[in-house]
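Researcher: Last one for today. Full complex below.
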Amino acid sequence: MNSLPSAVVGHPTAAPFLVLTDVSKSYVGVRALRDFSMSVSRGEVIGIVGENGAGKSTLMKILGGVIAPDGGTIAIDGTPHAALTVAESIAAGIAFVHQELNLFDNLDVAGNVFIGREPRHGGWLQLVDQQKMRAMTAPLLKRVGANFPPETPVASLSLAQRQLVEIAKALSVEARLVILDEPTSSLPVAETEKLLEVIAGLKAEGISVIFISHRLHEVERAADRVIALRDGSLAGLLEKAEITHGRMVKLMIGRDLLVPTTEATTPGPTILRLKGVQTTAYPGHPVDLDLHAGEILGLAGLVGAGRTELARVIFGVDPAVSGTMELDGAPLAIASTADAVARGIFLVPEDRKGTGVLLDLPIQENISLPNLNAHATRFIVSREREARTAGIQRDRLNIKAPTMKTLTGLLSGGNQQKVVLAKWLAMTPKVMILDEPTRGIDIGAKSEIYRLMRGLAKSGVAVLMISSDMEEVIGVSDRIAVMHEGAIAGVLTRHQFSEENILLLAVGKTLHEAEMA
Amino acid sequence: MNKKDLGLLILILAVGTVVAILNPRFLLPVNLANTSNLVGLFGLSAIGQAFVIITGGIELSVGSVIALIGVLFIDLVATEGVPWPIAFVLMVILGVLIGLAHGLLITKLKLQPFIVTLCGLLVYRGVARFYTQDATVGFSFGQTFPALNWLTVGQTFGVPHSFIVMLIVAIIMWVVLHRSVFGRYLFAVGKNEEAARFSGIRTDRIIIRAYIICQVLTVISAIYFAMYTQSISPASQGNFYELYAIAAAVLGGFSLRGGEGSIVGVVLGVVLLQELQNLVNLLGIPSSLNFAVMGGVILIGVTVDQQWGRFRLRRAGEAARVVAP
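Model: Here's the assembly. Have a good evening.
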């Protein structure tokens, strides 16, 4: 393991293509990136690991020229820059393949690869030269090992194939550094293998790759060097021989788990029981699950495993394809969110800004919204009662805002999340579902939310927490259910908790194999 | 009354002052009574339209419904001899059914409001014309309904009853929209339907109710229009009236994206539109320019309002940045 300065020196075998020296970036009050240095040589594959909020996305935005660092230099081919513009980043040959793919469904592959740069013909008519475009796309597809022709409509491609299109697009602009952001997080295993081959192919062509992933086994296999980020700083650098799963985790976490659950909780009776519930996303994959009073059940799995879809069914957003639910042993029919809310089943959704709160309503109106009739006398809303409820929740949850009449959209992410929680806590929850409750939230608010979830469980509420953050799932849950392709792959009890067990179940292996690993 | 409404009121007074100076006839009681009668008639349907626009929808069938209800109501009362209170109740029921149908198509079949109500516009106009075989419907000579006349085209101290009824409806609807639970839900649904649903609101029901309210108010205004014009030609009665209602709402600060607007605003919007109509008449501007004047004023008004809104948003954002940690 090398210390910080050696990162600047770079890989010994080739002159570095990109060198970052002491790059820093602060947002209001938060140091997103602190004196960060790294180098990328030609044909080198760098793995970047780190938790959510460790500074990875800030780093990517700086490389993409979207934001300017406050200090430090970015040298490309030895030419130092204080900051890159988007145009400079593109001109330097830095290409991104984002987690959320940015392809146009209504165009074919060639059209996507050359979007905005279509070869023209027909003189002043400026017609798109389809033939030439396809001819130019074919060799690019070959380079990434794609087995579909350039005229394939993108809408008919799988996620993995779309990723190849994105990479082909990067190659079409003569990329010298391809940055893959969580490329495998939603891919099945076989497709992942293929992607790793493509990365090896890029490397062989002398193209550098930055590979950002939470899936450490793939990082281990693909990367020549691994850079670990933690709280905006370089936590450590691993050379090829040093890259192991354990070392990466140690560097990433570098401290005790945020919320070690010390007391062993005794779960109460079953509150919510799912029997053969199938979601529209995964018909034919029934879910059986028991949720007990007083426990926090972590729901882990890869992105796209069907966790959010399951939460939506329980909360009445989407209908179930089949299956039954029981609440306190009695059959539970949920046809709408209103039904769920009436039964004390609440959801803190994943998309906070889109569905969690109404951004242009005042805080207090968001909090009273699900329970407005209790804040009204003969259909007329009492603002005094709303203010009182909001005041109680503000004190309980420590919501930081000028007043409770402030528009919710003006709050920080953490405080917005507290508003979502407040609207449910102002009622009497029986089942509380939290979908990625701490995503994009600062550490302080995070631990407050953990405390709150534990408090809810202690008061007898059944808590279901969906989370992709391993540390969070392991640290917070009493039991962990792991989903794979829409079904529960296994339920882990405390002594079985480990990242390896969760990951193995998440990719579809059995718990037995998991225990052997 | 918020700042937006106040700005609109000032504009109305300013335009009124200028018109009054250029042509003192503007202030004659008969002119004011005439104008306020029109404000009452258009106001009723505009308030209805406002409820739909709040949800982010639109109701284009208003003009055709005014024609259809007009011919049906006059025919029932004048030709079929149905007592007018019963005819009135029947018309309201028809309005509820039309609103329900639109609401169901929009929420359950997920059709776009523009398309559903555009089809309504075509269908009701066609039915109205077919019903009378394109003939004009009216009262027979000497036929009088004193109570109905007093309620609709009567005046008290020179104030037309249509205007008074519109004011009463506006006050009730102000309470509904700005103070009631349902009104709060309407705004929530208009601002973000998904988020409202995730708060346990039955958003479909809220939207359906908005279309029903719109149609019921349109029915009331249709009967007032019918009693005002006395004879109805189904091909032209109410043509473009939906656009007056939409224009009034937009002038009154409504956003067609939903979630924004006030009853005071839409009423003031109607007042401004009628004032402009009156201005065209009184200032000797060729009446063929009527629409052009209206369109121009709406465009300017909305542009100013947008820019002002952006400015305020920036200021609010800056203020919040100072406050937030």
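The interface with chain A takes residues 175, 179-182, 184-185, 187-188, 191-192, 194-202, 259, 316-317, 320-321, 323-325 of chain B (CB under 8 Å). Residues 290-323 of chain B form the longest helix (34 residues).
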